[in-house]
Amino acid sequence: MHIHILGICGTFMGGLAVIARQMGHHVTGSDRNVYPPMSTQLESQGILLMEGYRAENLDPKPDLVVIGNALSRGNPEVEAVLNRGLDYVSGPEWLARHVLRDRWVLGVAGTHGKTTTTSMLSWILEHQGFKPGFLIGGIPLNFGVSARLGESSFFVVEADEYDSAFFDKRSKFVHYRPRTVILNNLEYDHADIFPDLDAIKKQFHHLVRTIPGEGLIIAPENEPNIRDVLNMGCWTPVERTSINGAAGWNAQLVKADGSRFTVYHEGIGQGEVDWPLTGEHNVSNALAAIAAAHHAGIRSTDAIDALARFRNVKRRMEVIAKLDNVTVYDDFAHHPTAIATTLDGLRKQVGPERIIAVVEPRSNTMRLGVHTETLAKSLNQADRALIYQPKELNWDLSQLKRHASNIEICESLDQIIARLKLEARYGGHFVLMSNGSFGGIYAGLLAELR
């Protein structure tokens, strides 16, 4: 079958493309933004990429068109699909119909930590020899690809609350019908499609309604918004997690930066995780992954052993250069809470060493200016924060300076590079934070720093 994918370079749609290719389909796709790592991953799989959306991309006629949620009416390729009467479907529905049916689906949902937790859980299953299928919104370094069909009954999916397609406004995760679910956390996000937090809670409850009574929900003990969702109605057992608390699954920090912690289940020590990751958010992610793996039949001790060998996800505090006394990180940042927890983990790791945060407010929520005050406060662990204000950004970032004294607004990438070149004289940790390509700043910056 010839499957053509619109929006193929998105992390989710790119993962679908890889799985479809592994199922033996002929896969092509088009996108407006074609850049690594997804473009290189797809090309390595033998998938033809077409840059830009045009009606002629649909020649020869594909058997099925899978349409990503970034596409809308008025797009020339979408209009051609409709005008020609081609068979089309959303990405989540295609996944549910052709991949998840009859499999033990383990879903990871929440505002933060989905990609990392999904990667951890997939790695735990892999470490135990199960060869699971997975679809992840990033590239786990242990696997080198964001998705695969797998060889066992287990399939781990990053369960995103974003809508499915222009013709299906339900959240993606409603399609997946998981047996094991991690609800990491819940905050207001995706301001472009959700009017308020209650609208997101409603979608999360739609997910809860699909989980079987013989399944399992794993949720933090102290997440009031998740508690509100479950109080709307829950028909599935719930296991709780905590850090330095008293939940059924609890982590006691051995080191404040989260690089070592002891796991307890029902008060009984299971072992100690000693790994290169930092931050309490990653401890929470790990604990949830251990609990989910336990539900799938994996002993906690084996899960802990696997996490000691976990290498994180590409663009999650990924060290991209060490130059003299400067370390440069690439971090996928989409929300103030994610920025704050990441910088807090780094601060606890490096102590008084200088931290320079460089932020591109690219996510739809941040671009709309919803989190002005919280974005400013999320940067308080940085000695200096450089915020990129491109011309097309529709709000004035100078408002951030009312809430924090360490913020500097930069209107060009060249200005950021010049500023970091000056900062390099004093050494420290430069954290580039964006959920996109950051205008390709990386090569230019490293060339100047060298």
Automatic annotation (TrEMBL):
Mur ligase N-terminal catalytic domain residues: 2-100
Catalytic activity: UDP-N-acetyl-alpha-D-muramate + L-alanyl-gamma-D-glutamyl-meso-2,6-diaminopimelate + ATP = UDP-N-acetyl-alpha-D-muramoyl-L-alanyl-gamma-D-glutamyl-meso-2,6-diaminopimelate + ADP + phosphate + H(+)
Pfam families, A to Z: Mur_ligase, Mur_ligase_C, Mur_ligase_M
Residue stretches making up the Mur ligase C-terminal domain: 315-436
Keywords (A to Z) from UniProt: ATP-binding, Cell cycle, Cell division, Cell shape, Cell wall biogenesis/degradation, Ligase, Magnesium, Nucleotide-binding, Peptidoglycan synthesis
SUPFAM superfamilies in alphabetical order: MurCD N-terminal domain (SSF51984), MurD-like peptide ligases, catalytic domain (SSF53623), MurD-like peptide ligases, peptide-binding domain (SSF53244)
Molecular function GO labels: ATP binding; UDP-N-acetylmuramate-L-alanyl-gamma-D-glutamyl-meso-2,6-diaminoheptanedioate ligase activity
Family that this chain belongs to: Belongs to the MurCDEF family. Mpl subfamily.
Function: Reutilizes the intact tripeptide L-alanyl-gamma-D-glutamyl-meso-diaminopimelate by linking it to UDP-N-acetylmuramate.
Name used for this protein in its record: UDP-N-acetylmuramate--L-alanyl-gamma-D-glutamyl-meso-2,6-diaminoheptandioate ligase
Protein species of origin: Methylomicrobium album BG8
Gene: mpl
